[in-house]
Design goal:
- The chain has 729 residues and is mostly beta strands.
- The protein has no helices and 67 strands.
- It is elongated.
């Protein structure tokens, strides 16, 4: 806005910013120029002025500039909409740097802030509802320019996904029934639903069900128990899982899948095998019925005894006759089910059972069975057999009948053909002794067996090596390897190397097996062979064994004195020469020479009955089992000792008289020798002498005096000596 003043009513010409000139009249000497909505600086230039009365004019050059400052601005540059409930709502205000902006939130009291660096962030913490920011004014604090604003910005606050309730009750239905729907009540934004089934009451690991709804109706097409839960998803917050439902149980219809229909025949009072029905269903109950005909209607209710109200009933065999049985099964689902009729249950006064055969070979078998008859009846029985169930051959066991009670007949069949299937059964013919029911039959069930294929005996190898043992030693077993059917073995010994004409060895030591151990109880040489027999073919003889040589044990003999005087030496004892490992032992003496040879020298030193024993190894290498003992009587021998008196000195003098004695033993004889003139103290005992050392009877020097004492009973003698030295007086 410019104000031009001057001569009243003069006309002034001006231009703005050099634009086209404009002429105006200064009414009352003033004029106002207004530039509306200037956005840039404005310069007013006065060009001329003219007095319209005097027509005087003047060129002007005055100018005036209005500086136009820009208006401040502020905008809401961004926000973080949408957000989840409880999150922060955030706004960014941008505009003139350092300008002051006034705003309010949701129409509340205004708030003035400064746009430091040209921006300001408004945060609403934990917003739970929509938030609206309204800009009111902006002012440049330098130019003081301001502007009224009307900008608004809203942050949408979406609620979190939550489940407030769910179905948890259990339900039960029969198969193909209808469950009540189960539901979840959830809140949130753009929520979706995923249902799951599970075999256990847990909310993990389930199987997805393709239903996006807060309501699901479980199916009843499969028998069993399942549990259900729902996972709810939304734009805000985490997925939410419902609690697991109660058990949804689908029960099967009552169905009988199998039943016992086989016939049974039993002796009276012998329990039948139980009959059963196999069923599926829920809360099942059973009721068995008997009928005199093979029909499942019109039967007699069997009450509750013997399992008649369970799936397994045991028919009773208390009355002679025939009955049939069936069962009606009831349950929670479906209609009652009736089993098929059983086979005939016959209660007989006599009963035959064909038992399994035993001891089957290629050519024989033992037939077995059992038969019973009640009091007042007789039953005759036999076996019939053949290669088909038509049998064709009858064989009668012993005994062949019974009166009351039971029997277990058997029969050994022989002469059968190898590798053939045979059938047989036990047949009974019972007769009431009162005259009724004559000749009624009972049959055991068919049994079959296969005779073994028969292979002729054949020997593939046998022991033929020679063996040598000492008497009572142990030979290694010898054997044959043979093939064939039901082989038997018999070993033979022979004195020659021939596999005929031998001696049967019975059954000891494996003599009737494929392996036999020859015995070494008799010295000599034998040979062995085995005859192998089977169910078919010709018995086979093995090759003859090598020689089995049993060498004798050595029995040493001993030669030498059998009666000897004690303390005698140089006594020689001998045994057979040419052996080895001689072992000598003696009692009552010592071996002084020859140990380890066939001759020893012994000194005996103990009175009594003593012995010499010897063992050795003979030329066959056999050792003496028991050493040979050779008894020797060691007789008591005298033990003379010479003593002198009055002096026992070694040195004596010629012409002295010296007395010498040895102890006296009654009955013994004494013989003295020495030097000088000898006289005896006693003409009978003679155990003492007096020796006069005469001169010149002898020679001076060393001499020996001796006495020999002899026991006339044992014949043993001993000599004692004493050395003296005769000195010249």
């Amino acid at each position: 806005i410019y104000t031009i003043t001057g001569t009243t009513d003069a006309q002034v010409t001006y231009n703005l910013n050099g634009a086209s000139p404009v002429t105006v009249t200064l009414a009352s000497g003033t004029y106002t120029v207004t530039v509306n909505g200037a956005t840039t600086n404005q310069t007013l230039n006065l060009v001329s002025v003219e007095n319209m009365t005097t027509l005087c004019s003047k060129t002007l050059s005055a100018t005036s500039t209005v500086t136009v400052n820009p208006l401040p601005y502020a905008i809401i540059a961004s926000n973080n909409s949408p957000i989840s409930s409880g999150s922060d709502a955030i706004y960014t205000i941008t505009g003139t740097t350092d300008a002051q902006v006034t705003y309010n939130l949701n129409g509340a009291s205004p708030v003035t802030v400064t746009l430091a660096s040209g921006t300001y962030t408004v945060t609403v913490n934990g917003a739970t509802s929509n938030q609206t920011l309204n800009l009111v004014t902006v002012e440049n604090m330098t130019t003081l320019c301001s502007k009224t604003l009307s900008t608004t910005s809203t942050v949408t606050v979406n609620p979190l996904t939550t489940i407030s309730s769910q179905s948890t009750a259990s339900q039960t239905q029969c198969i193909n029934g209808t469950f009540n729907a189960i539901t979840v009540t959830a809140s949130g934004t753009n929520i979706s639903y995923q249902w799951y089934s599970n075999t256990s009451a847990t909310t993990s690991g389930g199987t997805t069900i393709g239903v996006n709804s807060n309501s699901y109706t479980p199916l009843t097409t499969t028998v069993g128990t399942l549990y259900y839960y729902c996972v709810v998803s939304g734009d805000c917050g985490i997925n939410q899982t419902s609690a697991v439902s109660g058990a949804f149980t689908v029960n099967p219809e009552t169905v009988i899948s199998s039943q016992s229909t086989a016939a049974q025949a039993h002796y009276i009072n012998v329990p039948f095998n139980a009959i059963t029905v196999t069923t599926t269903g829920t809360n099942l109950t059973y009721q068995w019925f008997s009928n005199a005909t093979a029909s499942t209607s019109g039967g007699t209710d069997l009450g509750s005894g013997d399992g008649a109200q369970t799936n397994s009933y045991t028919p009773q065999a208390t009355t002679i006759g025939t009955l049939y049985y069936y069962c009606i099964v009831s349950g929670s689902c479906g209609s009652n089910q009736t089993s098929a009729i059983s086979g005939a249950f016959e209660v007989l006064p006599a009963f035959a059972t064909t038992d399994a055969p035993i001891l089957i070979t290629s050519v024989s078998a033992v037939l077995t069975g059992s038969i019973s008859v009640m009091n007042g009846y007789r039953v005759d029985f036999y076996f019939e057999y053949g290669t088909t169930i038509s049998y064709g051959t009858i064989v009668t066991p012993t005994p062949s009948f019974i009166l009351t009670g039971s029997a277990n007949p058997t029969y050994l069949l022989t002469g059968l053909t190898p590798n053939v299937t045979y059938h047989y059964r036990l047949v009974g013919i019972y007769t009431y002794l009162g005259g009724k029911n004559q000749g009624a039959y009972v049959y055991g069930a068919d049994q079959s067996f296969d005779t073994s294929p028969c292979t002729n005996p054949s020997i593939s190898s046998q022991s033929t090596a020679t063996q040598t043992q000492c008497l009572n030693g142990t030979f290694s077993a010898i054997s044959v390897i043979a093939t064939g059917t039901n082989l038997t073995y018999q070993w033979f010994s022979n004195t020659t190397a021939n596999n005929t004409g031998g001696t049967s060895l019975g059954s000891n030591n494996g003599a009737q097996t494929y392996s036999y151990t020859p015995q070494a109880t008799t010295a000599g040489t034998k040979y062995y062979y085995c005859v192998v027999s089977g169910d078919c073919g010709t018995p086979q003889s093995s090759a003859i064994s090598g020689a089995f040589i049993v060498n004798p044990l050595p029995v040493p003999t001993v030669s030498g004195a059998t009666s000897i005087c004690n303390n005698s030496s140089g006594n020689i004892y001998t045994t057979e020469a040419g052996k080895s490992s001689y072992v000598w032992n003696i009692t009552g003496g010592i071996i002084t020479a020859g140990a380890g040879t066939n001759a020893i020298t012994v000194t005996w030193n103990t009175v009594g009955t003593e012995n010499v024993s010897v063992s050795y190894i003979n030329s066959f290498g056999c050792s003496t089992v028991t050493p040979t003992v050779y008894n020797v009587t060691v007789k008591s021998a005298p033990t003379p000792v010479i003593t002198g008196t009055p002096s026992n000195a070694y040195v004596v003098h010629a012409l002295d008289t010296v007395h010498y004695c040895t102890p006296y033993v009654y009955g013994d004889l004494y013989s003295w020798s020495g030097f000088g003139q000898v006289s005896f103290s006693s003409s009978t005992a003679r155990n003492c002498i007096t020796d006069y050392l005469c001169n010149p009877c002898g020679v001076y020097g060393a001499w020996t005096i001796s006495v020999t004492e002899t026991n006339p009973v044992s014949g043993c003698s001993a000599t004692a000596t004493k050395d003296i030295y005769i000195q010249n007086p």
